[in-house]
Amino acid sequence: MYSAEFYNWCKIELLLVKAAECLRKTFEQCWQRKYKVAWSNTPECGQNFTNSVGFSVYRHVGKIQKEYLEGGDIRKWDLTIFNAIFIMTDLNRGAVFQANLKRLMPIRNSMAHHSDKNIGSQEYQQYWSELKGILLVLGATEEELDDIIHSRSSDSKTFIMTENVKRSIELKLEGNKLLKEQKFQMAVTKYTDAITLPGISDADLSILYSNRSFCYLKLGQKTQALEDAKLSKRLNPEYVKAHIRLGKAYEALERYDKAIKSFDKALGLDTNNDEIRQMRSDARKLQGLRERDNDETIKNLNVKSRQQFKELKNRDQLRKMMFDYDPALEHVWAGHEYRDDQNYLKAVECYKKAAAMRSAEGMYNLALLMINGQGINRDYQQACKLLLEVSKFDPFDKNKIPVVGVKEAEHSIALGYHEGSIMEKSAEMAVVWYEKAISHQNGMSANNLALMYFNGDGVTKDFKQAEKLFLCALNYGDPNAMDNLVNLYVASGNINKAEKWNEKSKKQGSKLARDREHAIAQMALKSNADIAEVIDWEKELNLPFENMTIRERIFRKLSYEHPDKPDILETMNDLENLKNKSERVSPTTITNGYRYDLEVLAKRKDKSEFSNRMYRAVRSFMEALDIFQSFKRRAVVVLDNDSRLFISRLAMCYKLEHFVGSMPMEIREVIRKHVLLLLSYSDRAVKNSENIDELEFNQDCRICHAVLNMQSDENINFLTECIKKYPNNKFFFEIRGCLYNFKDKNEDALRDFNRIDEISKNDVDNVYHKAATFKLMNRMNQATDAYNKFLSIASEDHRKVPETHYSLGVCSMMSRNKDTIAQQDTIAQHYERGLKAEEKQIPFLLPYESTSKEMLELMLRTLGGRSKGKQNPVFKKPVVKLVDPFRKDLIVSHRRGINDFSKIMSSQGDFQVNFTAKPSKSQSVPLSLVGLKPIYLSDIDPTADHVLDGFVLELTLITAPFNNNMSISFVAEDNNSNVQRVSLYNCEKHTLAIGSKISVINPYLRTAMDGKPLIRVDDPNSVIVSPHQIVDMCHNCGKGGSKFSCAKCKRAKYCSKECQVLDWKEYSHKLICDS
């Protein structure tokens, strides 16, 4: 038997049910009075409501309630929905009605969150008294209320509600048992049955939704998991698991920022839960990786590096020599091989052996596998210990060779602090460790620290500091640095620099640079007009603008002018950004379908089948985006003619050339959600239909969904379902086959491509896919035949023709041909054919990027062959005075050189340096100095060997010049405090000292013999020494008039004791103190 207190709770619940009935009747009356038509509980009514008077209500409520509103059946609408309707619309009975409705909601909320569902007599009388007065105003009668409280029908209802609670508990327990048995779909059914029972408390519903969310996540239904987790949290904000489920759902959807916030809330409710702390660490780690768009947890080698690594291993003599030098290297290399083959258990064994021999590289790689739980239990604490231990190693061995693993460990520690993954999140400690890694020439650390200053991530936003760090990262070889530098200039409105550096990035082969070129050109045309008004407004109000982007400055003005519109920041249309904006995200996430000029393609479309396909693909994509742009004004997603046309155009683009439809991640996510809703509508429409148009639309929805979710782990399962439903649609087989290849399931991929042959004979793309699959399977003869077949049927300008020639060269390279010379000639022929094929490519596809091409170039260079391709650029060092890393590196290196030269002189007497590398460029002085333009070190590309004709570079010496009898060398800074090495040849007539100011005409930046850049001067007439110099310049900070001197050498001047100590400790003044 149930207690009297429990029956009291049930009776109050029945009164609240009666309140909902009254509000339904009131709504029906108000609707008929306003629109002269009866409410019919149909979706048409729901759509009419949400598109008219109920639009604000629809925006206010949650997703489940939105579905109820769309369905139009007011019998499913609860008190929360009616409260929103009568408060937010004019469908009400006046102020008294609204006042009583506001009194009703606290009672409803109190009952929903009642802890034990037992109400004593006194509490019951209070509720009854207040509810009675409210219900009478809402339209109930005395007789109806008395019937609920006293009649047998009320007891019957109460009994039913009591039984419902009992049944819900039984269903929950059955669901929990199925969950433990990993029968997730069956568990979902049990939880759903329990959720649909009336009379279940919010606390119980919260648990049911939380459990169902977990099951949905296990089934790969991420969106459903997210919605259930949201409902669970909303029903019981104090329920820890609700926040955990929400965090896990957000993490699965790659919305890591929201996942972290959810885990933070869970930790706030359960502060000592290490499991939740671990979840948060994992989410932070994933967030950091996505923001930088590179996987720095494992030091993966690209294909070219792998090829070089394999070649190096096979050179037995060199290999033996290196193993003799460092015996642990044999275990490290073996570990790398196992790791690259994903045999992590063996990799761990090898790295452990190397670690036992105190190998920094072995210990570092072992720590990385611990972090990922690959081949060894995940152990953040032990991994941290290993990384910290490696960071204590000397970064250079006795022969001044960098010790691999040290700066990498420092970088990993910095990442741990930055992301809060393996360390407790700390921006301050991240900066410390990034700077330490930068001091050992780690370019990734410089790039990440620059991004922190760029975004104001844990540090004060500082565009100048970010610029210096990006330049430093570029010096140290981080390939992302140049593109990030362009993004910085775009964001800060420095369009001239953005254009210059974007052009340099394009020459380096950056795809992002090509994508961004048009956007920057458009900004250049518009920026002056757009920003002029903002600048005037800022001057008028004396507002600061440093470290603000153009968009932030415009938004600030808009927000000031429209204080009544808090969502003014959303008025910038996201799809317009796709055409005109360069986003501050990593390169691989920025691709833009509009980079393909439709007019150019229109002129080419009749010249070849491929050009025609490209034209139709780009046109379809642009039409799809234009249609989708109009959807932004809609409150709900509806399946109408525009939606059908949008799907048709987008699917057509993907079926023709899917890469044309690439888009920024944030735009893709919006479109992906829209497509998912349309797919759900379409699935319902075709469930019991044989309508050809509906079936065609459903297939197009599925194609769009598959392409937009290409990175999803569930995509193969989804495509398998599509194939069962539509076994003759070749596009499902094509996408799944490509995914199988990506996951190294080549046999499965080949089966899919063979099935396409049955559906569509001699499909040109399928022939290429089969050839590539054969090559991946190391079936080189079949790959060669398939590649040759592709060349016989493909258009000359097909984007895969050059790659096919290069792949044929790789097939030849991998074949067992004893005639090395003949094999080399064959490889060279395929390489040259590939180069010629590139000349026929559509301009937008150039420069042509191909891993196979790089492999052939490496092979031909190694064999002394006929490679005509440009070698990959070496990232060299420009300038930066940041927190000091690059400046420190140049100064210390310069002083070390002086010290080494002094030692040689003292041991060998009169030593003459009589060699230098012949410069590849010649520097000349113009006849007239009129028209020379000033240039700064930040404008000079350090990766290019070039003379800057028509420019003059002003420099100040910050180190004492050093004459080695061939040249005068020193470190100098420009007027922006950026630094670089300088070598003057044939310039003995000039008298220079620290603090001297010089102007270099037509400066020549070249790569020196050590592979690093410097400013070289061969013509003494190109150097003008200024009579004005910094007298008694501080050897540390550069201030003039320094009064203190080094007590030992008497030459070095300092403005303070602090500068002297810093110069001795950090800049190694001791190296030259006695020299």
UniProtKB/TrEMBL annotation:
GO CC, alphabetical: membrane; TRC complex
Ranges: TPR repeats: 240-273
Superkingdom classification of source: Eukaryota
Record's keyword annotation contains Cell division: no
A GO BP annotation: post-translational protein targeting to endoplasmic reticulum membrane
SMART domains on file: SEL1, TPR
Keyword Disulfide bond: no
MYND-type domain residues: 1034-1073
InterPro entries given in the database record: Sel1-like, SGT, TPR-like_helical_dom_sf, TPR_rpt, Znf_MYND
Any GO MF annotation of the entry: zinc ion binding
Keyword annotations from UniProtKB, A to Z: Metal-binding, Repeat, TPR repeat, Zinc, Zinc-finger
PANTHER family: LD24721P
Protein name according to UniProt: MYND-type domain-containing protein
